[in-house]
Amino acid sequence: MNRQQFLKSAALALPAMTSGMTYANLHGWQVPTNSLNDESFWKLVRSQFPLSKEVNYLNNGTMGVSPYSVIDAVYQKAVTINTKGIYGGGDHEALDAIARFVGANADEIAFTHNVTEGNNIIAQGLPLSKGDEIIMTSHEHVGGALPWLNRARHDGVIIKIINLGGTAAETIANIEKAITKKTKAFALPHIPCTIGQVLPAKQIAALAKSKNIFSFFDGAHGPGMLNLDLHDIDCDFYSSCCHKWMLGPKGTGFLYVKKSVLDVLKPVMVGAYSDSGWDMLSNPPTMNGYSPSAHRFCYGTQSAELYEGIIAAIKFHETIGKQGVEDRVKYLTSTLRDGLKTLGPNIELVTPEEPISRGAVTAFRLKNMTMQKFQEMANKENFTIRTVAENNLNVIRISTHIYNQPDEINAFVDLVKRCI
Hints:
alpha/beta; 4-stranded antiparallel β-sheet
């Protein structure tokens, strides 16, 4: 391609990048007072997403689809950055937005790229010694398990595995039974990616506090699904991502570090924004100390356009209302569960029945068909789902968000009916 052809192709491509990026002015929306079952409203919400009408996307637990407003915010900020040469460092507006969204203070929030990064910061930074015990579950994903297994490999800490109970009370009891004098931390999923069971985080954090044990939650599935308030939960640490239920840009996340335990956690990796001053000309060269906030755990050049997308995603949620989002996704999940329950004994629902232990994820098994065979059939009919082979659970996982519609749920139930 010669120079003239290149310039022509680039000029043609630029308008295409923003084609179809038309969406309602969020601040102009009139959210119905009783929006839960107002399907005309939720169809308007659905229209704000570029998701193809040919796809029945029931895998939000892996990746959330961003609305046009988020995509546009990222694009417009990227144009501005590359027009004016703006450096991507810490973004206080985005930190403020995340803190507001999850019920924390901005100085307790650090940017990360994903949940796994936050998990590693905690696993490597806690003051642990050989023989210290960490309580985990049999429902960890790879990014939740490996940081702690790696710490065990390096330093000889002991990982103790508990099973989840069928109720919140049973789960608490299982944790209590595993505690010994050597227990130093709970490293648990708030909502495990496997079956979507909502753990009683506030009660677990209170139990940890009463035993002088650190409480840490892998919160990949909390923010954006639940009306989260970390100060109310009162855990010590919480890692999450913005690309699942928050519907934000991919490759974005955050770590919450409660102010009172900030100095307990050792920063393993540092850089710009981690310090409170340094001097390479003194003898010897010195670093004065760490940043007096959780920002010490995020360092170096960051993506300002992705921060802009996070802000837009939070605005999107807040326009609808955090509780409104939680109520709607739980309604969709209940619709799915109710439909599956009518299909007879070949359906085994694995996610607990207890309302406080359920969110927007449903896991089930087909007694007459492998999950792999079912996934093949679902794919042929344009259903995007996830099967969970981790820890030999072998379940079919369905996760729904506000862009899903009841007719999609009903069509999926009909697919299952034809398979049993």
